[in-house]
Amino acid sequence: MRRRLATAILLVVALVAPAACGSGKPRSTTGAITLYTCVGDPTAKAVIAAFTKDHAGTKVELFRAPTGQLNARVAGDLRIGGIQADVLWACDPLTMHQFDTQKLLRSWSAPNAADIPAQYRSANYVGVDLLYLVAVVRNGVPVPKTWHDLTGPSYRGTVALPDPGFAASALGMLGYFASTAEYGLGYYRALKANGAVQVKSPDDVLTGVAKGTYDAGFTLANSAYLAKQKGSPIQVVWPQPGAVAIYAPIAVTTKAGDQALAEQFAAYVASRAGQQVVAKTNVYPVLPGLGGPEVPAGAPVVVPDWSKLFGSGKALYDKYRTIFPG
Question: DSSP for 116-173?
Answer without folding.
Answer: S-GGGB-SS-EEEEEEEEEEEEETTSPPPSBGGGGGSGGGTT-EEEE-TTT-HHHHHH
